[in-house]
Amino acid sequence: MYAEPALNLVDKLLLKTHTEEEREKLFDQEQGLLYSVVAYYTNNDTTDWKKVSIYNESRLKAIEKTGNQKRTAEFLFHIATISLDGKKDSAMFFTNMYKSVAIFNEIKDSTYTVYGYRFISRFSRSAGDFTKAFESIQSAIAISRKLNYLKGLASSLAQLADLYRDYGEDDQALENYQSALDILYKAKDTNTLFNALGSLGGFYYSKHNTAKALEYYNKLIEICARQSKPYHNAGSVYKWIGMTYSDSNDYGNALLNFEKSLHLFDSARDFFETGDVLNEIGSLYAKQRDFNNAISYHTRSVKIADSMNMQGTKPVWLYSLALDYYGLRNYIKAKEINDQALVGFKKHWFDVKITSDMELLAAQIDSARGDGMGAFTHYKEYVSLIEKLKGEEISKEAQKEKFRNESEKQKSEQEKKDAIAKRTRNLQYMAIGAFLLMGIFLLYGYVQKNRDKKRIEKAYGELKSTQAQLIQSEKMASLGELTAGIAHEIQNPLNFVNNFSEVSNELISEMVEEVDKGNTAEVKVIAKDVQQNLEKILHHGKRADAIVKGMLQHSRSSSGVKEPTDINALADEYLRLAYHGLRAKDKSFNATMKTDFDESIGNINIIPQDMGRVILNLITNAFYVVDEKKKSPHPLKGREPYEPTVTVTTKKLGSPQTGGDGGKVEISVKDNGNGIPQKVMDKIFQPFFTTKPTGQGTGLGLSLSYDIVKAHGGELKVETKEGEGSEFIILLPVV
After folding, report:
1. Of 187, 402, 434, 532, which alpha carbon lies 20 to 30 A from 668's?
2. How far is Cα 688 from Cα 470, in angstroms, rounded to an integer?
3. Is residue 337 a part of any domain in this protein?
4. What is the C-alpha to C-alpha distance for residues 185 and 197, in angstroms, rounded to an integer?
């Protein structure tokens, strides 16, 4: 490795040079040597990431000494991308990429600033952090618009469309794809237009819309026809067209386009793409169960991987070949190849989904060979990977949901800003056009504001907070209120267990008959079905177990000890149980449930059993009053149909220093029932006072709820308006 001593020599010369010209020449030499060192250490199977890190840090210091900000930013960009090649060091990636982007932004390099934000967004998207991905791509869009950087704007809009596509917002995705295309057609940027059209084709391909996908891919062929060296671009397009036809089972057209792609990539000596197209053709034959031809093409792709040392790609192509031999029932060969694929994939490119597929194939091969222990081992690993994959999917879905909510919030805020801007423009036009109309408008606004002010003052005078008159030591047991809700929650998994048990019993009877007949193959098929049913029974049994444990946790006698509790989860759980409990008792009962939880609250110290009873009582009362209003025989005329609605919200209030309420958490239960008459407002928290008919209420619910909240150092208050509804608000201190 001759580059290392050469780098040391360049370092010494840099310390001795004085002119900027000499330093620049030495710096260029150093850059070339550095990339040689990094390439050497990263292209070997046993990558020495420690040495790569040492060299990167050493060179960065040398570059910073030159004072050349652009070169410093470029090298930070290089370190960031290198950190993802092997170790997948996301912390190092973000640290260095943000530093790089900050410098590029400072020196007004719009190209790299936008590209850096796009790179951050792309990596965040692949990691499932859709919030950061969205924020980064919005930064890229804002900078591109500010600097009128059309290429960057179009690319960023297309990337934003990819994000919307990921979480199913197809209309938003298409809108941004189209915006990107409009810009690129005007700018006549063929290369970026090629990428955007490809993304749109890919979008329709993922939706199995063959006609639309081919429409955009054919536009790409037209672009390639105008290029001087279209080998790579045209090869990619013909491969995409082949995949589209294959997806719609049009094997003739698929093969025709794959062969065109293969010829172009072979002419360009693009070995990776050549191998990939060979793999696609092999898979096309495998779909038609022509496994001999499939083996021929898959073998060629594996040979290319061997000759070009494609250690990361080879396992994927080996897996395709293993499937071919499995299809021919050559289980020995299939096992040999699939084992190679598994070892190589785990070493060079671990992906949970593909690895789980390989483990499942290994289990199927061992099962077919009669190796029960081997099949069990691989199937166990497969199940473990599937569980991990489900966990990742749940995490990504949570990120997508968070991204969706924030996106909707930003959209709403933007709509408000647009509405304000539009209103401002209209006012300006009105002022220029007619001063008289403006005067009338201002007068109307003044009168309207006075009316609003009077209405607010009147409402404020009608709303008063109340205090309880009696401290009640006895605590109500609320498990009875939850019984029907618990039954609803647990019924579904029990139904699944019963159904799958009955089916399994029938399958066992069939298996006994097949055993008597000596039909081993059918026995194995039935056994596999039984195994799948048992897995489903286990899954739903565990689900029922989790529900029961959760209910026992919240229904046990209070210990009187405060503990960190997720107030959002507590409120959401009792909302669902109260609703299903009432539905179980009265099938005609129905109401809309709304929630707005402040995720920044975190855990707060409360006695969960006691506070759960308070929340349950308030929600049950809210459902009662909206149901009573709906059943009222005299609905108001001229109004929209009444929709019973109960809303539960949580909010973290600020500190006194910021004008807040002293670091408190607010829990609100709001209904749109008939409200509370002012004449009984002073009595609602008194023991044994109730507005319900005799036998339907004890009059202790609100009284005990008030005592529990007060014992927590909090406050329970109510705001109401007759005919419109009530809102009960719990204020708890954050300790």
Report:
1. 402
2. 11
3. no
4. 11
pLDDT band at 690 (very low <50, low <70, confident <90, very high): confident
- The whole-angstrom separation of Cα 150 and Cα 189 is 9
Q: Above 80 in pLDDT, residue 231?
A: no
Indicate if 653 and 536 belong to the same structural domain.
no
Indicate if 583 and 513 belong to the same structural domain: no
Residue that terminates a domain, selected from 254, 277, 298: 254
Token pair, residue 632, equals 């009222």
pTM over 0.70: no
**Which has the minimum average pLDDT: 424-433, 681-690, 701-710?**
424-433
- 487 and 586 belong to one structural domain: no
Classified as helix, coil or strand, 188 is: coil
Domain that holds residue 510: 479-555
Instruction: Judge if 528 and 603 occupy the same domain.
Output: no
- 139: helix, strand or coil: helix
Same domain as 653, residue 551: no
DSSP 55-84: HHHHHHHHHHHHT-HHHHHHHHHHHHHHTT
- φ, ψ for residue 733, nearest 5 deg: -75, 145
Among residues 204, 237, 254, the one where a domain terminates is: 254
- The answer to whether residues 645 and 544 belong to one domain is no
Instruction: List the structure tokens of 12.
Output: 């010494």
Question: How many other C-beta atoms can be found within 10 angstroms of the C-beta atom of residue 58?
Answer: 15
Contact of 80 with 97, CB cutoff 8 Å: yes
Dihedrals phi, psi of 665, to nearest 5 degrees: -110, 135
Query: Does residue 44 belong to any structural domain of this protein?
Result: no
Is residue 321 pLDDT above 70, yes or no?
yes
Whether residues 490 and 572 share a domain: the answer is: no
Nearest Cα to Cα of residue 241 among 229, 233, 231, 253: 253
Angle (CA) 92 94 97, round 5°: 100
Distances (CA, A) of 95 to 55, 90, 133, 523, 642: 18, 9, 15, 58, 54
Listing DSSP states for 362-396 in one string gives HHHHHHHTT-HHHHHHHHHHHHHHHHHHHHHHHHH
From 326, 237, 247, 239, select the one nearest 275 (Cα to Cα).
239
Residues 484 and 530 both lie in one domain: yes
Residue with tokens 């190796």: 371
Cα 342 to Cα 735: distance, rounded to the nearest angstrom: 52
Chain mean position to CA 628: 40
Which CATH number belongs to the domain containing residue 611 in this structure? 3.30.565.10
Domain assignment present for 94: no
Q: Using the predicted structure, report yes or no on whether residue 296 has a pLDDT greater than 90.
A: yes
311 found inside a domain: no
Counted domains in the chain: 3
**Helical spans, DSSP H, in 207-270:** 210-225, 231-247, 251-267
Pairwise CA distance, residues 216 & 244, whole Å: 12
Q: How high is the pLDDT of residue 636?
A: 54
